[in-house]
Amino acid sequence: MEWTVATSAGECGTCRRSFTEREEYYSVIFSSGEEFERKDYCAGCWQGSPENAFSFWRTQAKVKPAPPRRFVDDSVLLDFFERLGESEDESKKRFQFIMAVLLLRKRLLKERSRRRDENGVIWLVEVPRLGKQFEVRDQGLSEPEIAEVLGQMGQVLNIELSADTPAES
Fold this sequence. Notes:
The structure is a single chain. By secondary structure, this protein is α+β, with helices and mostly antiparallel strands. The protein has three helices and six strands, in the order E-E-E-H-H-E-E-E-H. It has a three-stranded antiparallel beta sheet, with no helix packed on it. The chain has a three-stranded antiparallel beta sheet with strand order 4-5-6, with helices on one face. The longest helix has 16 residues, at 90-105. The two termini are 44 Å apart.
């Protein structure tokens, strides 16, 4: 037989006050037939194990994870992106295209439109907070080429990037 017990709701089941980080509280499991129910109690509401408790224990509220550490400031990324667009070097254009995709995912750029010319697709992107617009050519990169550019970008920015790296803000 498999039993499922809920995780803490993060608040006292009596007074409904949320637990603070590392606060000690009590958890009680109640049995009702084949089901288990969990209820947590802050120290102020705890009056000892309830008579009908199946099990209880003292525990501690978890520490919330720290926000992700930013390796490079957003303004530095945007400045780098803009400078890449000023170059005629094809490797820098590829770099700028991948950077545009990452900045779109981070919502630092917003796609305004796309158009096609004889050489492919051109994206019109904007930096909303600056009101600046840029044209970025879709480089039509293969998976190995994307991996290569991400590796180069990671070296330049001193971060580890892969094709499935989330670009969190």
